[in-house]
C-alpha cells in the first residue's frame, strides 16, 4: 500500500451503509460478531480493525472482501457479487471438494502451502 488509509472516508461509508441497511451499531456488531466498541471505533475513524474483523464487518455490510481497504484508498466498494445460481454453486462446491480431496492425500509441501495461504487469507496466526 502506498500511503495511509483515509479512515474518515471509511467511517463515512460505513455509517452510510449501515444506515442504508437500517442497522444500529449494536445490530451491525451482532451480525459481524464483534463488539459495539469495534464498530464505534471504526465509525469514529479511530482504529483500523484487524483483517479477520474487517472481513466480518464487510460481510455484515454486504460488501466484498477488501472493500474497507478500497474505500480507505479512495476507491469505491465493489459490493456483493451476484449470487450464484444453484448449478454454479454445485459446480463450485464440487471443485472445492476435489481440491480438498487432493490436499488430504498430500502430506507434503502442497498441503503446507495451502494451509499457509488459508491462514494468510483469513488473518490467522502462523502456527499453534
TrEMBL record:
Concerning CDD domains, the annotation shows:
HTH_XRE
* InterPro entries for the chain: Cro/C1-type_HTH, Lambda_DNA-bd_dom_sf
Superkingdom to which the source organism belongs: Bacteria
HTH cro/C1-type domain segment(s): 14-68
Q: What is this protein called?
A: Helix-turn-helix domain-containing protein
Q: Which organism is it from?
A: Actinomadura fibrosa
Amino acid at each position: 500500500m502506498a500511503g495511509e488509509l483515509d479512515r474518515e472516508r471509511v467511517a463515512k461509508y460505513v455509517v452510510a451503509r449501515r444506515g442504508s441497511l437500517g442497522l444500529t451499531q449494536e445490530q451491525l456488531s451482532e451480525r459481524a460478531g464483534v463488539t459495539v466498541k469495534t464498530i464505534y471505533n471504526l465509525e469514529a475513524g479511530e482504529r483500523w480493525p484487524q483483517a479477520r474483523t474487517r472481513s466480518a464487518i464487510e460481510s455484515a455490510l454486504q460488501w466484498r472482501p477488501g472493500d474497507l481497504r478500497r474505500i480507505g484508498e479512495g476507491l469505491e466498494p465493489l459490493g456483493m457479487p451476484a449470487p450464484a445460481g444453484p448449478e454454479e454453486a454445485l459446480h463450485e462446491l464440487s471443485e472445492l471438494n476435489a481440491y480438498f480431496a487432493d490436499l488430504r492425500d498430500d502430506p507434503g509441501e502442497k498441503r503446507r502451502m495451502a494451509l499457509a495461504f488459508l491462514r494468510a487469507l483469513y488473518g490467522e496466526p502462523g502456527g499453534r
